[in-house]
Amino acid sequence: MEDRPPSDAVLAERARRGDEHAFGELVRTYEGIAFRTAYLLTGSPAEAEEATQTGFVKAWRALPRFRAGAEFRPWLLRIVANEAHNRRRSAKRREALGLRAAAEVASGDAVPSPEALALEEEQRRELLSAVNRLDDRDRDVLTCRYFLELGEEETAQVLGVRRGTVKSRTARALERLRREVEP
Amino acid sequence: MSELEHALLALGRELAVPEAPDLAPRVLAALEPPARPARMRLAVVLVAVLVAVLLAALAIPDARSALARFFHIGAARIEVVDELPAVEPQPPELDLEPALGERVTLAEARRRAGYDLLELDEAPDRVYLGPRDSVWFLYGRPDAVRLLVAQTPKLSIDEAFIFKKLASVGTNVETVSVRGKPAYFLSGEPHEVILLDQYDLPVQETLRLARNTLLWEEDGRTLRLEGDLSRAEAVAIAESLR
Q: Nearest residue on chain A to B132, judged by CA atoms?
């Protein structure tokens, strides 16, 4: 008996053949991470929503060129990130990211992670402010690696650079950030 | 993982991110029947038309004669043989520099590019690392460009597409040869360049000069020369890259 949901690869292949229902499954699976990606890159809910929706529609159009066996998520996030970048460029600015309200954090995270405990409120605000001051290239790589928690390979695919570039860019961005936050 | 990296991870989990909207119905309503797979791998699409204001802002002052003096045309070597004339700065609101990428030194570009750069004898005035590991050499100043040389790995050119699409939008396409390899000299109507990357996703190359362009593939990369160059000048410069 086989009742596991079909894998991304199966859904992508069905969608490639024109199955809108299969594509709908992929949209529902990935709209959360796609929207989060677009939001963290633009800082604007409205731009993020547009970028995500357009990204999905473009992905559908590009499906005939999606390579069988490739990972669907980074391919999709790449398209969405491209859209987000285009919108950010048109707007000529990126909205600063903000922190959740303290109450929201408490109710959302019943058991705070050790990392969260380690970071005091004031430090968090300072760190976020320093991230917001970084240039787009530095901020994008840190966003992918730490705010979206993507691995190096996936970050490379989403940003359209080589893995080695992700490594070096991350190291440089961390160094710049360290200089910003350390007295 | 360093303390700073832990702090960033923690921060990421506490960012105020709005709840994702339910996009599936809207996305599905916007779908069209899927396109048939492209018959060939498209790689270069040149789309006509930059708005007049953009053109005006990006226009290079008439530097053809200066370039003829600057580059020893017809030989495989580039020499500075005359002083370049003064050129008028362009409006600051359309700055070319951000479109080119991160400004680095030539040495840093050589180190970080991940491939051996093809270079002219004359060192560029500015060097940028752009998206997709592209490297841009700028001769002149961002607001008064004499020549741009770009190299981007993992992109390729589809001859059939160039001829089919470009001829129809008023861009002249001439086939030339750079070191025995086919190359395309694009002139006439200004154009934007769209390339497809290794994932077959369109990469819009906007806000470059969109002047006469020589485009060719060599050594696993796509190369472009842009400037107010004649065909012979462009080929001579291209052949002096090493």
A: A161
* CA A15 centroid distance within chain: 23
Q: Which residues of chain B neighbour A124 with C-beta distances below 8 Å?
A: 7, 10-11, 14
Bigger pLDDT: B207 or B239?
Answer: B239
Single pTM value for the model: 0.53
Please name the member of B18, B28, B37 whose beta carbon is closest to the beta carbon of A65: B37
Burial class of residue B53, CB neighbours in 10 A (0-12, 13-18, 19+):
exposed
Of B6, B112, B197, the CB nearest to A115: B6
Structure confidence by residue, pLDDT tens digits, B36-56: 433 323 233 332 222 222 232
- Residue B41 has what pLDDT? 31
Cα B160 from Cα B21, distance rounded (Å): 42
Q: What residues contact B13, with CB distance under 8 A and at least 6 apart?
A: A109, A113, A115, A116
Residue from B1, B5, B6, B13 to probe the interface with A (highest A Cβ count within 10 Å): B13
Residues within 8 A of A (CB atoms), B 116-155 only: 131-133
- Quick check: B15 and A109 CB within 8 A? no
ipTM of the predicted structure?
A: 0.86
Q: Are A27 and A72 in contact (CB under 8 A)?
A: no
Q: Determine how β-strand B202-205 pairs with β-strand B191-196.
A: antiparallel
Three-state DSSP at B224 gives strand
Which tens digits make up the pLDDT trace of B192-238? 444 444 444 444 443 344 568 888 888 878 888 888 888 999 999 99
Closest partner residue to B10 among A113, A157, A162, by Cβ?
Answer: A113
* Of A47-56, B64-73, B183-192, minimum mean pLDDT range: B64-73
Q: Which helix (H) or strand (E) holds B65?
A: helix B64-70
Which chain A residues have a beta carbon less than 8 Å from that of B128?
Answer: none
Cβ proximity of B153 and B114 under 8 Å: yes
Cα angle B66-B141-B138, degrees, rounded to a multiple of 5 = 85
Q: Determine, for residues A164 and B114 on separate chains, whether the beta-carbon distance falls below 8 Å.
A: yes
Residues of chain A with pLDDT under 70: 1-3, 92, 101-119, 183
Query: Do B171 and B48 meet the contact criterion of CB atoms below 8 Å apart?
Result: yes
Is the Cβ–Cβ distance between B110 and B124 less than 8 Å?
A: no
Distance from the Cα of A2 to chain B's closest Cα (Å) equals 26
- The residue ranges of DSSP E strands in chain A, in sequence order, are none
CB < 8 Å to A100, chain B: 14-16
